[in-house]
Every structure is written in C-alpha cells, then in structure tokens.
Amino acid sequence: LFGIKKTRSSPYHPQGNGQAERFNRTLLDMLSIMVDGNPGQWDDMLPFVMLAYNSSVHESTGVTPAIAM
C-alpha cells in the first residue's frame, strides 16, 4: 500500500530486528528524559515524545518522519 515490506523476525533475538529495536531504544531514552523523577507519567508524555520524534530531522534520511510519509 505505502511501499511497506512486511518482514518477520525471530522472537527473543533483537539483533534480527535492529531498526525496530533502535527506534524502541530512542523512544525509551526520550521518555526517560521527559518523565525525569516521575515514571508514572510516561503515558501522559508519550504524545509529546512522538511529536518531537516525528518532527525531528533524521540524519539517515535528511528529512522528518512526517515528511518521509
């Protein structure tokens, strides 16, 4: 539909799905900064973190994820 290729990776083997694992690490790093000292608020901060992520120019593509779509 959008040129997305579905792939499968083996469970419990994060090296097989590096791109998704890197995104997860970035998301966790950003969330930990936002909820500094109050981890119970992570779900309240998630929309702000996603907005920041989707609005940031990524080094590998040179554009924001929102523009890449």
UniProtKB/TrEMBL annotation:
The positions making up the signal sequence are: none
Q: Which InterPro entries match?
A: Integrase_cat-core, Retrovirus_Pol_polyprotein, RNaseH-like_sf, RNaseH_sf
The record places domain Integrase catalytic at 1-69
Q: Name one GO molecular function term.
A: nucleic acid binding
Which PROSITE patterns does this one have?
A: INTEGRASE
User: Per the UniProt entry, what is one GO biological process?
Assistant: DNA integration
* PANTHER family linked: PROTEIN CBG26694, PROTEIN NYNRIN-LIKE
Name recorded for this polypeptide = Pro-Pol polyprotein
Task: Give the organism, scientific name.
Answer: Trichinella patagoniensis
Which gene codes for it? pol
